[in-house]
């Protein structure tokens, strides 16, 4: 099980970074989203994996619980990463609209409004 | 008065002139003067004690761990300098009131002047060298403002820049030197450092510390080869020149040398560095001064020369020389400030400072002539004025100094310097005031009003009185200051106008006679001087600055060429290298955890996740397809959370997924649908290597982590144990969010709100620019659907809306005990609203809901904050929660917790932020005619109207 999750984190990270290194803004945004998945899974997994042990207290029986702390961290991280994606999308979009191209690199000729 | 207050008064008072200038220039000047007078009185109250040899101090621990304490100390040396700064400052303030013209912003001038004054007082009163450094830099900054006060003059701006560059870089060197000094002595308090002479001089770090500190002192006090900034700083208004460049700022370097004299002086290194620099500066400044035609330039170079003289005296390292240095500091301050003021008067009256256009002014300005004449004679060292006394002492000390085994060298050069000093001093009198009256002055000069002549008159009175009665007037303060420098008690100080026939007297006579002779030969000497090739300091300075600028620009351009992808690649490479180093040098330890078994379900999920992710990369050029595929990835991630005992995360991830995809779809609407192929094969390979490396690193790290137990006990046990007892909820994740780590969550929703407001602001900016026209005339990428608002979808979303909102409410209320909570509920409620935007159109949906989303965000943050503050009323820290249980009849037991109220704030903030972000983006799409008039609405009024028409 652990090897599956670890390899998934690795592949998500590699794919995300490969896309982040592209030269247009849209693939970079997609890459950031993939990297967010990878980071969230990574943080979550630092609490170690457990099956059928959700951190919901059972008043009637003594059962094991998985680590709740990384879950709380990741929950807010997911919401914040949405906020970050939204801001980045907005910046990319306005840059594209103003400069009429969506290149990431600022070398060479600039857009007409730049 | 406390030393803190004396040091703080000028800073506090700097506000008054800036404000009171509206009440007139007199009010501004009076307020500035009162502040300075108050500080001066405060200082003088301490004078009797200090003159008795006591030391007044005031201490306050500021950052004791860094050794930075606000410690102030007043001894004889501090009293002398603080007295000069505040006393001459007072005269300057009066003088400036009448000197500056109506067009000059006087409030600003006085504010800058007080800032400078505060910084200077701070330097001389500091007992902590770190504190001293802070004030030291402040004098550089405030003098920059003062020199560049006439912003419209290019010379003023250039001079200010040059002064800042030279004294600022000297200040940097001095920071280094001071830190070394403090390191050697083990304390940054001057009073402690000054007791460790042997320790410091024996240290191998003594030489670097000394050189660095001396660079700071030499730049500030305009010593060769840093002397060139001072003449260029003369572009400042004359009061500034008189204050900064004769009496105070340029003496800060001398002050520092005097302050550290007890521990740094006495070595060969000190003698050769300081005495030689002083000697060279003294002669060089005097020679150049003789050939300057601008009155202020002449005085500037003479100041350089006199500063060199004092530096030389300090450099000799003997106690009598130090006493002479202290005495000359006083004398120079008096006659030079008076001379600058007289030059300003001449400039004011004749509208020129060029000696070539002047002459014969004694007939027109007898009063100014008298004042300037006495001051200039004192500068020349003619009895019975104070300059004579200290120059005699200087020559006397010079005869005792042996430079590199040559006994006559130092006295001979000193006499040479004194000779030129006599020549330029007499020239100031002869070529400006004596000679025949001319008829070609730019304007006809006349003596000024008392506002301009009284301040220099006070100083000239001192020049005469100190000259005639040195023992009565100057002795107490000179002895106190010299004691502070040398560490002696009752330093020997008995200056006399007549010492008998001593070598110093002969040297003096030679200097005066030679100087007078030189002045008579001024015309041929000037021809010779102009014929000599000599380096122009400003040209060299400009060349150095230009070369440094070009070099840094070249480096910056090479490193920052705008290729963001390259920066990212370099950053990645560096991070990978760092991670590899950590891995190679670290120790991973054995695996300690048993692994979970691999079953069919996770394998299927893994195939979907990895397959979709790799497809995103493979097909990322087709952007719409990439979005569909990344949706699959997101879904599989949320399923993994669910499978691995994290229901809250699964719920959050899936609802965030929905809004993210909608957001990206909206944005894609305005962007190209395809990504062109433009990366070369080599570049793709580079990126592939980097990303695979990073993927291996991340995957390997988390694998290693997951197969090992916690290295240290986790704090999670506490949360599990106290979630119900302390927080009243069984959903531990939610209790952590709203209770244990409530402060984090509070920050989190604020960040989210800020992000949404940034998006709104960008939208406003874009829609307000000329991009707007392009958006309005935009042609869609694909042909639009015939039915913009399909009937099925509109009806379905409208039916679903109340259900979705109820689900949100359900998720919200159960959140404390079961998976759910404010974050998830907010996202679900946002989706319920967004559905309406999608199905029925932006205009329709906007018309039907009147709540401003900013307000919802603000309310959310406010509710959370007020809930948190509620704890204060019970005397508990921010965000301490309280809860209880109620059992309403016919219903289940129900929990009431303040945490739920906090969660309501989270809910509102998330709802508002998501909706504001999406709505802002949707506003880009607005085009005339896009709003269909009746999108699937049954409007009774319309039917009525139709009926009315039919009826007719």
Query: What value does the average pLDDT of chain A take?
Result: 88
Average of the residue pLDDT scores of chain B? 87
Strand content of chain B: under 5%
The helical percent of chain A reads: 55-70%
- Per DSSP E runs of 2 or more residues, the count of β-strands of chain A stands at 0
Largest interface: A-B, 87 and 120 residues
CATH overall fold name of chain A:
Helix Hairpins
**Which class best fits the helix and strand makeup of chain A?**
mainly alpha
Structural class, from secondary structure content of chain B?
Answer: mainly alpha
The residue fraction in helices of chain B comes out at over 70%
How many H/I helices of chain B? 42
Going across the biggest sheet of chain B, name each strand in turn: 1-4
Rg on CA atoms of chain B, Å: 40 Å
Radius of gyration of chain A: 20 Å
Please give the oligomerization state of what you see. Answer: heterodimer
Major sheet of chain B: 2 strands, antiparallel
Shape of chain A: elongated
By DSSP, the count of extended strands of chain B is: 6
How many helices of chain A does DSSP assign?
3
Could you spell the SSE succession of chain A in H and E letters? HHH
Account of the protein in words:
The complex is a heterodimer of chains A (114) and B (952). Chain A is mostly helical. Chain A has a single domain, classed as Orthogonal Bundle (Helix Hairpins). Helices cover 63% and strands 0% of the residues of chain A. Chain A has three helices and no strands. In chain A, helix 1 runs antiparallel to helix 2 and helix 2 runs antiparallel to helix 3. Chain A starts with a helix and ends in a 15-residue tail after the last helix. The C terminus of chain A is likely disordered. With 952 residues, chain B is mainly α. Among the domains of chain B are: 257 residues, no CATH class; 220 residues, no CATH class. Chain B has a two-stranded antiparallel sheet with strand order 1-4. Chain B has a two-stranded antiparallel ribbon with strand order 2-3. In chain B, strand 2 and strand 3 form a beta hairpin. In chain B, helix 4 packs across helix 24, helix 31 packs parallel to helix 41 and helix 38 crosses helix 39. The longest helix of chain B has 32 residues. The mean pLDDT of chain B is 87. The chains are: A mainly alpha (114), B mainly alpha (952). At the A-B interface, helix 1, helix 2 and helix 3 of A face helix 28, helix 29, helix 30, helix 31 and helix 32 of B.
